Amino acid sequence: MRGVKAPRSLRSGIPADAIERFDIGTTGKVSIAALAAVGAIGTAQAQQSTLPPVTVDAPVTRAKPPAAKPSAEARRVRAAVRRAARRQQQAAPATPTPTTDTTQAADRNPYADPGAPYKADRLASPKFSEPIANQPRSITVLTKELLEDKNATTLKEVARTTAGVTLGTGEGGNAFGDRFFIRGFDARNDIFIDGVRDPAVSIRENFFTEQVEILRGPASSFAGRGTTGGAINIVTKQATDRNFYNVESTLGTDNTKRVTVDVNQVISPTLAIRLDGMFQDAGVAGRDYIFDNRWGGLAAVKWTPSETFTLTANYIHVDLDQLPDFGVPYNRPALAPYTDTGVPRGTYYGFIYRDFQKTTQDIGTVNGEFRITDDLTFTNKTREQRSILNYIGTIPESPNNVALTYTANPQSRYQVTDVFANQSDFTYKFWTGPLKHTLVFGAEISREQTSIDSYTGLSSEAVGPGAFNGSGSFMNASIFNPPNLTPFPNFNPQLTGNATIVPVKTNSGYVIETANYHDVIILNGGIRLDDYNVSAYKALTPGTVVAADSDMVNWNAGLTVKPLPFASLYAAYATSSNPIGAEVDGTSANYGGLNPTATVNQIFAPQQSRAAEVGTKWELFERHLLVTGALFQTEVSNAREAIPTGLPNAGQIVAGAAYRVQGIDLGVTGKITQKWSIYGGLVLMRTEVTNSIVPTNIGLPLANIANQSFNVLTKYKVTDQWEIGGQATYRSEIYGGTLLVANQGTVLPSYWRFDAFTEYKIDQHWTAKLFVNNIFDKLYYDAFYQSASPFVFVAPGRSASLVVAAKF
User: Fold this and answer.
1) What is the CB-side half-sphere exposure of residue 748 using CA atoms within 13 A?
2) What angle do CA 237, 381, 111 make, to 5 degrees?
3) Cα 105 versus chain centre, distance
4) Which of 130, 196, 489, 765 has the fewest CB atoms within 10 Å, counting from its CB?
5) Inter-residue contact 14 to 46 (CB < 8 Å)
6) Torsion-angle region of residue 793: left (phi > 0), alpha (psi -120 to 50) or beta?
7) How far is residue 628's CA from residue 304's CA, in Å, rounded to a whole number?
8) What is the pTM assigned to this prediction?
9) Are 587 and 500 in contact (CB under 8 A)?
10) Is 381 helix (H, G, I), strand (E, B) or coil?
11) Which letter does DSSP use for residue 205 in this model?
């Protein structure tokens, strides 16, 4: 036993090699008295006492028996104990202090930068294996913290304050609900929830939302049909491995009363559940009579029975009860809405005793993830969904600018959309030399069916003869004094019963490959095949069937080069296909739907688009701020258009039109300093018709698009308790029009809108937040209704709200 060292108290004054030379020898015995004597060498006052020699056996090293290999159950228990220990350590209460870092809260967004919660680092879908900073495309992500600071409780409010996104209406037989344009292209059926298409044109709440992801540019190789301008993916909240209990209440000047609850509970080391609830009773600022009541809930579960298998599931129910507001008439001679020419901004043009809007959504999702090996993972997601859009509303059409009258025209719909979808993905990670590969290949099947019915019996007997026509339209109503208090004493609307049924069957397969060379050069590409079949028929009218079957192949390719670890340059190219009937809510082929009773030809090959984009992304300030910039161009061919009056075959629909959208897309999100957060974007576009059956259309811009839009939200932590913030939004003028080209005779003016908020942290659990939206009570408008006699949607006026939140 060489190299034995005595305790420090016995080594003072001993040469270092004295101990090294002291050897136990082969006897395996050592004399403690001898050790004491050696320890005294060199000490001036060594003790002169003699000690009896005491000897002990030196330790004998024995070989350890081979450890038994743990069973699968033992490994599972060991992993569960480790997870429980980590949770216990993470959940240990910190010393109470007003400066508690809320970015590390138990309910934080798992996809966001922990140090800069405005900045999302990754997308939720496994199809995007690289961080957002490495993706060769423009992506806008609104994290949970951003949604809270925008005070955005609906997807519509998100779109209203996001650069590059424009709101639309429900013209052409389409449903009135969420309708968005991304980079100039209709995206109302390009909404996804956790990566599964939600084709229902519904009204979407945000209480169950973790983040909103806006992919800009064609996304057919990732998402399937459509997605010409991009796609919106809503990421829902899931059960997590940490306990938290949150409640939030809101009181607003627009009569808003809102409560949300968000609770996560770990039941066992392998099981966690999450429950969310929302209740709202509200009005709409600046609009008479309108109410916006909602309630909903989410239940989510996460089960991890082993280290290799995880099962997550959630169920969402949302119920909305509203008085629909279909806008105000447009004064064509003045090139402005009537609320800009003397009509009070709050004037309501519907009938409060007839009109209603009820929307429900029930969405159930089960997702299983099985890690076959360390490099191969299989996931399977199944979705069952039903959405109901049910309304009777009044649109103020055909204004008489001399008599100052209009026609109060009813619009009604009872639309039920059912979705069944299943996605199966394999994710394989491997190396070839210095290249790290991530290969995602999978298949998707979806079955969608939309039933579209309408109401009859919309007239009122309480008004004199001639006021209502047979369809329930009120004729010659006063623009300045609309008859919205008209009684309907025997109101009993009935559905026609002869609904239009639109089934859609899609079978898809795809491969997506990413090759990363030392995080310096990253190649990305994908290809997808969609077998798309759509038909439409009347429920009670035999023989009225129109159908189309399309095989669509789309692909994308991108190259990202990172000359610096925090900076990248990229170039990308992608295609998309928009088949006929893809807008399943439509009852007019002019607007992308199928009409089973139409006499015109409706079957055409899919509309095709090709897009190119070059850009750069920079992660600055310790990588907590992402700054992006891109140049893009999208060209569309085989677009559909209607032959106008005055040309041969007027009213027929033809394919062969083409148009182009070019632009600049700038964005910033994250933290500039530890106290200063920012999120913003600027989009400048130029649109142009490049081919049309009408020669005079060529060169004209597209309708319903804001070619310049800007938004910035920023906040600053003044002290450990106080934060202040504000938001500015700009949108350029929008031209009206029908189907393809803008009508220079109808225009919505440009506008600026400003918001502000301040937040006070009472303690580590309680927070109070005051919002003032539309500070200067700006009168502005969301969207045009595309018709020869348009009307416009009025945006909300000024409102203030106090939000008190408790988090435990």
Assistant:
1) 33
2) 35
3) 21
4) 489
5) no
6) beta
7) 38
8) 0.86
9) yes
10) strand
11) B
Calculate the alpha carbon distances from 360 to 179, 196, 235, 416 in Å: 17, 18, 19, 10
pLDDT tens column, 495-524? 999 999 999 999 999 999 999 999 999 999
**What is the DSSP annotation of 23-89?**
---TT-EEEHHHHHHHHHTT-TT---------EEEPPPP-PPPPPPPPPHHHHHHHHHHHHHHHHHH
**Which of 232, 313, 233, 319 minimizes the C-alpha distance to 277?**
319
Q: Are 494 and 457 in contact (CB under 8 A)?
A: yes
Residue from 335, 309, 280, 148 nearest 727 by CA: 148
- What's at 572, amino acid-wise? A
Q: What is the mean pLDDT of residues 394-409?
A: 92
Taking the domain 236-807, which CATH number applies?
2.40.170.20
Question: Where in the sequence of the chain do the CATH 2.40.170.20 domains occur?
Answer: 236-807
Give 522-572 as a 3 state SS string: EEEEEEEEEEEEEEEEECCCCCCEEEEEEEEEEEEEEEEEEEECCEEEEEE
Query: Taking a C-beta distance cutoff of 8 angstroms, is the pair 418, 386 a contact?
Result: yes
Would you say 183 and 634 are in contact if contact means Cβ atoms under 8 Å apart?
yes
Q: How far is CA 694 from CA 94, 493, 699, 703, in A?
A: 70, 42, 11, 16
Ranges for all domains in the chain classified under CATH 2.170.130.10: 103-235
pLDDT for position 696: 87
Q: What is the mean pLDDT of residues 140-160?
A: 95
Q: Residue 725: helix, strand or coil by DSSP?
A: strand
**Least confident segment among 128-142, 678-692, 773-787:** 773-787
Structure tokens at 15: 């040469």
Q: CA-CA distances (angstroms) from residue 720 to 100, 118, 183, 195, 430?
A: 9, 18, 40, 38, 46
| Cα 365-369-371 angle, rounded to 5 deg | 175
Tell me how far CA of residue 364 lies from CA of 182, 380, 389, 507, in angstroms.
Answer: 28, 14, 18, 21
Specify the CATH number of the domain 103-235: 2.170.130.10
Question: Rounded to whole angstroms, how far apart are CA atoms 221 and 159?
Answer: 24
